[in-house]
Structures are given as structure tokens and as C-alpha cells.
């Protein structure tokens, strides 16, 4: 299978491949020895079916940021008051 970059510098992905990764709509992209590797983020629940708050929660989870991390960050930010 192959895909060509379009004029908008976008790479369309075949539907069959998207279905194979659970319908993911967002991906991490990494370079590995001259190859681009797409890593699905959080399965199918990363797009339009999520509220903005759920999208933020999913992004924090994907980055490994815990509730304790957030509490610590708030304490740090407020310490100078």
C-alpha cells in the first residue's frame, strides 16, 4: 500500500488501515531509522466523540500526567502568593 502527500502536506490514510487501529483519529509520529511510524493515541476515543474536557483528560493520561502531578503543579504555582 502507498499514499502520496497532497498539496496541503497531508497524508491520507486508507480506511482499511484506520479500521485496523480501532478508528483512531490522532497519532504520535516518530522517526525510526528513516521511517515514519504512526502510533494511535487512545484508540477510537480521541476525536469528535469526546467532550473538550475528556480530550484534555485523555491527553494528560497519554502523557503520563497524574492527578497528583496536577495537584503538585498547582501548589507550586500558588506558593509565591
From TrEMBL:
Protein name: SpoVT-AbrB domain-containing protein
Amino acid at each position: 500500500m502507498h499514499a502520496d502527500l497532497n498539496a496541503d502536506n497531508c497524508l491520507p490514510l486508507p480506511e482499511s488501515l484506520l479500521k485496523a487501529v480501532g478508528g483512531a483519529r490522532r497519532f504520535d509520529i516518530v522517526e525510526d531509522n528513516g521511517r515514519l511510524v504512526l502510533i494511535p493515541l487512545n484508540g477510537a476515543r480521541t476525536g469528535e466523540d469526546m467532550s473538550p474536557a475528556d480530550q484534555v483528560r485523555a491527553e494528560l493520561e497519554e502523557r503520563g500526567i497524574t492527578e497528583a502531578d496536577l495537584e503538585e503543579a498547582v501548589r507550586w504555582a500558588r506558593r509565591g502568593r
